Fold this protein.
Amino acid sequence: MEAPEGFDDMAQHCIDNHDDVMRHGSSEMQTASRMLLYALAEEIRRREQADPAANDDEP
C-alpha cells in the first residue's frame, strides 16, 4: 500500500513544528500537538502493518 502523495511530507512538517508549538503555544495547543503526533504514529503503524514491504529495512 503506497502512502498517498504528500502524506510523508505532511507528517514530517507536523513533527518539525511540534517543538515550536511546545515552546510558544498555549497549553491547549501543546495538547493538540501531542494528540496529532500520537495520531500520526498510529496511522504510520497502521500503514506499515497493511504493507509489510514498507518495513523492507528491517531484517
Q: What stands out?
A: The CA atoms of residues 14 and 25 lie 14 Å apart. Helices lie at 7-24, 27-50. The two ends are 20 Å apart (CA to CA).
